[in-house]
Amino acid sequence: MQKLYTTEGEALEGIPWEEYPRPQLRRGRWLCLNGEWTLSTDENGEGKIRVPFCPESLLSTCDKPISYGSVLRYKRMFVIPADWEGSRILLHFGAVSSRCEVFVNGKKVCENDNGYLGFFAEITKEVTYGGGENLLEVFATNDLSGISPYGKQKIKRGGMWYTPVSGIWQTVWLEPVPETYVKRLRIWTDEKGVRIRAEGVLEGVITCEGREYELSDGEVLIRPENPRTWSPESPELYEFSLRSGEDFVQSYFALRSLTVEERNGIPRLCLNGKPYFFHALLDQGYFSDGIYTPATPGAYEKDIHTLKELGFNALRKHVKVEPERFYYDCDRLGMAVLQDMVNNGDYRFLRDTVLPTFGMNCRSDKKMHSDPKAREAFLQGMEGTVMQLASHPCIVYWTIFNEGWGQFEADQAYERFKALGVDGFIDATSGWFHQNKSDVDSLHTYFEKLHLGKRRDLPQVLSEFGGYVFKIPEHSFNTEKTYGYKIFASREEYARAVRDIYMNDIAALARRGLCAAVFTQVSDVEDETNGILTYDRKKCKLKPSEMEGIAQALMEAVRTV
Length: 561
Prior knowledge:
With 561 residues, the chain is α+β, with helices and mostly antiparallel strands. 18% of the residues lie in helices and 31% in strands. It contains nine helices and 34 strands. A hairpin with a 2-residue loop joins β22 and β23 (266-271).
């Protein structure tokens, strides 16, 4: 296997990921705890690791094999800034895979069992002040048993399954807060206004565009004059601040509506009241040198700019939850996100892939994946994902189950999701094993002629297709094996095939009811070489000129028929 570094990874120096990690709830004071930590394991002894990169990655500088089921023991010292004394001290973790316990100065302060969601602990009583050093320890175990969500990780990686990610893989940080503070902002929006709930406080004043709005029981309704709506073409954001007692935070919102409306007898997905075609790519969120974590947050912005230049307006974030910097960049740069829940449960190649791919995809899911612990872990992860991400305007669509992976009682899961009161279209069963309740009819088609689904009373979504391969060996992880669905010998042949499938098949289906199409995929990932970008992000296999006119043709197809 080749060791591939991204350009950002080759240039990485100093403390990584020093950018503020929570853009929708910003405070002025914080302390980044990324950088060099000590890591010890039973099989490798003690050494150094660069956080927030997992030990399996090149950027971690660890470069040692990890025995799954063993405990990773992280530790580092830190000092509380002198001017923080008298405040409550919060210790935050962006994500740790997948089960962990956290200790400060020998005292357990929290534990967590979801490897994709953020968590925190108040450590005010555990730390020392006045320049004294404090010991932070994290004991982490990657659990790939099928109980905890795991996404595309597999111990024996290969094909469409990738290298597992252990331990800390997002930013670790501290912040001081007053006795009463804003714990979370929940934001609901439409084209004309926004409702904001400040959890943790009842009173306060929001300032937005020179006007002040007072909270009532922790909530406020804001209806800006001459509202500016958000879309990928015009990603308008409204900045605001909130002062409540001694706490002061900054944030933003956007105005946009998501509805299903009938046009000429065809149900359409609408953004801001108009039929919209979500011209998307499948986004696994993997990087050659950091695996789950790019070398810098700027890598997200770079990807988004590149893909927008090719005409794409959406990304399907595939069975992974990213750091909030990713969603912030999609908010501000204008990239719609189709967000998957992260799967758990067991996977069987014949049952979950082969037979459904060739038409055997109708079955009841009431008895599927019946382990009660796995079911509860999935539902808790689903609700946690929504609570963490729902206020980002870029997220327009939510996928509950993908291709039957961990699927059970999808109709009940759909109702539970709806009860969370979240904006966005809900795809209960992406690909196959469709049940009764969903906002869309969602198909995956790789080996047959593209077509619409059977539920013509629902908006039609092609949530995966393509998988075209053009391999560039010097930029490929696996030079011997190639995984994809149709292989092309030259870049020009590959580019012609991509253009043809859009201008002929996808455009024709859009006129008949297709509202979104997700091409596989953003980048190569390990054995897979079906990306538009190579795994190291150094080569793009398409040119903007080769994609010219496609996005316009798809949008015209859904708006003029």
